[in-house]
Amino acid sequence: MSDANLTDGPITTADGTSLKKSLRLALRRQKIRALLLIAPLFLFILLTFIAPIFDMLVRSVENQSVPETIPRTIDALEAWEAGAGAPPDEQVFEAFYTDFALAVGYKTHTKLGARLNYESSGLSSLFRSTGRKVGKFDTDAYADAFVEADPAFEDPAAWATWMADATIRQALPLTADTYDAWATMLMDTKGKLAAETEIPDFVTTALYRDLANGSRPADMPDVNVSGWEPVSLAGQFAGANKGWADPQVWAIIKTYGSSYTPGYFLNAADLQLTPEGISQRPENQRIYVRLFIRTIVLSVVITGTCILLGYPVAYLLANLPLRSANVLMILVLLPFWTSLLVRTSAWKVLLQNQGVINDVLVWIGIVADDNRLELINNATGTIIAMTHILLPFMILPLFSVMKTISPSYVRAAKSMGANDWTAFWRIYFPNSVPGIGAGSILVFILSIGYYITPELVGGTKGVFISNRIAYHISSSLNWGLAAALGTLLLVLVMALYWVYDRIVGIDNVKLGG
Amino acid sequence: MNLTTKLLATTVLTVTAGAAMADDMTIVSWGGAYQGSQLKAYAEPYVANNPDVNVVWDESSNEAVAKLRAMNEAGNVTWDVVDVVAADAMRLCDEGLAIEIDPDTQLAPAPDGTSAADDFGDLLISECFIPQIVYSTTIGYRTDMVGDTPPTDVCALFDTEAYPGKRSLEKRPLNNMEWALVCDGVAADEVYDVLATDEGQDRAFAKLATIKDDVIWWSAGAETPQLLADGEVVMGSTYNGRLFSVIEEQNQPVGMLWDYQVFDLDGWIIPAGLSEERQARALDFIYFATDTQRLADQAKYISYGPARASSAPLVGQHAELGIDMAPHMPTDPANSQTAVLYNFDFWADYRDDLDAKFQAWLAQ
Q1: In CATH, what number does A288-508 get?
Q2: How far is A188 from chain B (nearest CA, A)?
């Protein structure tokens, strides 16, 4: 009975708490301690690695600038069919007039133009040139007519009173919306009050549209606008720049009107988003797929030459007596201690047309003076310089793996009748494969993201995808595309790593020991 | 008690250190001989008058737009005065990243009382931009590699039969597109009209394609002088001041053309988003550094033309070589006889478009 009690009842510790509970408590304490120990590193990685990558991912799909800059136009474009082959109707242009005039006030129209120019070149100049003209549209005729009907329309204070009146606001929805947006813009950009500033044409245009729609609010000077000659805003925009009459332009604005877009990723794969769906970019704009392929091919070649050049050196290092191996090791490591830029610039001196290598070859008589070898500003230059720079990353893992291959294996093979080659190929080489694997991964992944050396010696035919990323970050300022290209590169490296794991097996990689 | 005193002392020290930091003024420029001339002509005399200001130089002008945009997004602008080319200044002004300057109240008038606006004249191409120098991009060639008939006009660039060998051109559409069209038979005054059309752009690219395999593309101004000195290229484009230094200061076998030199401007902007105190000091520096005498002084150290009309007569001799600088200025009448091309408005509008096309064309 008492035995049964012991096994059935909860087991307790000396102080009476249940064992389960106190074990859990102890375990939790341990977990917290472990967490606290890794917390500094974890936070560091989170802040400097995970967060930037996440930010990059977000940037590659973010497109807020379009709907935020021209929200009314995007709404009005809902009803327009891009496939019809005609520019949108007057209503869209009216909305666009308001949006555009406000954007010019905020100076965001150039940013929007630059953003849309990434999708179709020509839009940046369209937005910029129109930005200078939008204040000079013929819509001042409305303002003149209103003032002629009643001088109160010239008075900003009167406007402020009307726009504070709820019934007027309800009767004149467009005017109220436009006026509010303008007042906010004035306050934000110049710190001025709307009640003290001359009413701009696009606000009076909104008033005209409301009144033309049949609103006749009380408490305001009564104006009959039915007889006025309407100013065609489509015509005004087309007059400022004939690009606005092109349905293609509007199709792009409509296509890229949402807050998030796959556009950057499509662009990074030489595709584009059109109203009809996804299609290939025109022949003369396709460069990224070619660059991705070039990056991979050249990286593979560089990895290959590193193996060819590094293997014998590592073998020698591993099999020489310690004293001479150390001297050789210093020679291998020496380039590591020299600045990357210095090494790359040295290659320029060596490889160029009038450079050391060509001079020597001409002097020996191998190549003619007027037919010197093209060793730089092309893919050859990139391969030579990068092989040299990345070679230590191949030699070191190879060396540390070879060091652990016991000489008795080869001796045993020979004693059983293998010749030198068979002993090497059947016994030594398979043992060194994990070193080749480790070296290849290091060299390949480093070279796929390399930037400075191809930039300096690669000309136009030997540059990598990372050079384009740098170009979009610092010159063209197309950060969205740079982020998309960077994300694709990251995915590519991970995919290759996965393939490598399937074929070679990541357990088969050793850095030594 | 002791601890409190220590804490107080530390706080005071930190505050004074902070105040000392506030007197650092970061000037961003291009490095090299050009920044050297600014140091001698502007910064040293300014610091002599304002000993409490500590000038810090940053050589990031070629990435100024990208960096200012990033600083603006982060809300922490660390630069006080930035030296940029005209096109970048327009872009920064358009994006609201630079403050607007009123030349009549914020810049010094000429010694004879002419207002700054009139003194700078047409060169005030943007509300945010205070011009400093006029420089030009032009062609230099190896005198020993062109035979007995040295090139006399810019179209020698495209004449690979008469002048075989590599050429170096800048890795951007500006200047190259204009020269291509001029050498393809477009009249100088129609170049920008043609370049504004798709057909005209294709025409310029087609002309450039005839020498594409012979071109080494440069992105830093020092590259062409180096390539010329090494004999790597037979001719190439670069800034006139760089050629001056290769020819006159280093005595290399290099000659230069003024034919169809393309003018450009370089000058200051003050970033938006500075504290009031820092902005006031930046404005004070600009007022000093762009007055008539200072601009003329800079020409002693480098062969770029001062942007003020009133500075031109004050341009003297090179500070070390003692040669007259006036004939080496791009603005000298003898040097600007052939139609000179420059159109800032065109490039402000079309730069993004053409850059994208040009970079794609290069990568093909």
Answers
A1: 1.10.3720.10
A2: 13
